[in-house]
Amino acid sequence: MASDKKDILTAYFKIVMDDYDETVFQSCEGLQGEIEVQYVAEGGATQPRAVRGMPKLNKILFSKGNAAGKGSKKSLTDWFMEVADYSKPLKRQTLTIQLLDAQKNSVRTWRVLDAWPCRWLGPSLSKDSSDLIVEYIEFAHEGITG
């Protein structure tokens, strides 16, 4: 049981896409959704009825990784720069997010539909720090399947 806790504490999130390098991050936030609740008064009823409204999706933020990539494909930073170029069409893509344990085995997988990078934060540079790979990248999307 103790090894299970250790595996969770050293887990990573890997982003896999068709056209871009696989990228590993230590943190992933925003894998959640919510459905608005609307209250409607029905004729003759003494209390309003709760009905479904529009779904709300959070942006997904990955942190403590390297969005610059290492492989032969384009990096997440390249994709962000393409999105920022208004002369090009917005490229959406399905992201596969894999939760990896300490041995780099996939523990859980989510698919993020029609995603695109909407925010990128580069590393904080300081003469007192040698930490150059801490980057953040955030994605807008149109749904998550698990």
Topology:
Blueprint: H1 2-9, E1 12-16, E2 23-29, E3 33-40, E4 49-57, E5 60-65, H2 76-84, E6 93-100, E7 106-121, E8 135-140, E9 144-145
Q: How many E-type strands?
A: 9
Q: Structural class, please? A: mainly beta
Q: Tally the helices: what do you get?
A: 2
Major pleated sheet = 6 strands, antiparallel, barrel
Q: What fraction of residues sit in β-strands?
A: over 45%
Explain what this protein looks like in three dimensions.
The chain has 146 residues and is mainly β. Helix content is 12%, strand content 46%. It has two helices and nine strands, in the order αβββββαββββ. It has a six-stranded antiparallel β-barrel with strand order 1-2-5-8-7-6. A hairpin with a 6-residue loop joins β1 and β2. The protein is elongated, with a radius of gyration of 19 Å. Residues 5-9 have low confidence and may be disordered.
Brief characterization of the structure:
With 146 residues, this protein is mainly beta. It contains two helices and nine strands.
Which tags fit this structure?
two-stranded antiparallel ribbon; single chain; six-stranded antiparallel barrel; 2 helices; 9 strands; 146 residues; 12% helix; mainly beta
